[in-house]
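Researcher: Re-running this chain for the archive, since the previous output was lost when a drive failed. Same request as before.
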Amino acid sequence: SLGLAAWTRDTVAEVTLHDLAEGRLLATVPLPGTGAVGDFSTAPGGHEAWFAYTDFVTPVRILHFDARTRRLTRWDRDERDERGGAGDGGAGGSASVGAVTRQVAFPSRDGTTVRMFVISPAGHPDRPRPALLTGYGGFGRTMSPRYRAQVLAWVRAGGVFAWAGLRGGGEEGEPWHRAGSGAHKQNTFDDFSAAADRLVEEGWTEPGRIAIMGGSNGGLLVGAALTQEPGKYAAVVCSSPLLDMVRYELSGLGPSWRPEYGSARDPAGLPVLLGYSPYHRVAPGTAYPAVLLTAADGDTRTDPLHARKMCAALQHATSGPGPVLLRLEQGVGHGDRAASRAAALQAECLA
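Model: Regenerated structure tokens:
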């Protein structure tokens, strides 16, 4: 009998076929791209399996694997034919046309190897393009390569979209998480800065053409990037953020995040938080880039006070020509919202 095994290597999914009697590797299933898989199912006693596949530019689709032929095809329940799938004869599709994903590795400031997905029209640095860099780097959360409409929109418009797997996340296991939390939180920001440097060094983009975007803990990330290296970025989108790290425990779900960030009540933790707290690092007379802060009045996780205070501080401090704007959404919370409102939010962020 045969069995399929799903693996994750450097955040990218792999699927392998094995002899269950000996565990021997028989084949590697050729996935259509750099993505993620899940929801495996089989016919009892059969030789066929179905599973979900997605990547940054491909919405979730069902793939069909035949263990006899070792062939992977796209499956469509309404349009099956003898070749399998939806008549395209393979597991690929049109969604990813003009958008190619590569994973690159680079050293952070302390020499630690960090990985980043780069999605671009050509799949290689053909010329400097406008680049949009994002990341998360917190709570042990792994940012796997799953479909996000804004990625495809940006790349089809001619840009480069980069997603960095930063310390603080779960991309390399729990030690990776611990290396970017608490007293080590600056490692997350250093990894992000190194990612921006690598995009320039490899020719994906050039100075003055890098924008950054992040939400929630990723909002803290881009807030720190903005205040630590304001001249490095052309524009910043900071959504549902934590920005006053000295008082974050006093609102929303703040008290539950002490294991992640530390506490201002701790004599050893206060200097760490104060050292990177974006709100406290805003410096009068600094030429900050264009900034859009977004928040929701029903957010019970990250109180909109963070975005409001930061917007006021930046408007007062900046000497740069770019605007500092606050988009406050009514009647929604931290994440989920109607599809029409989500599309409107993403459109304004990309604009």
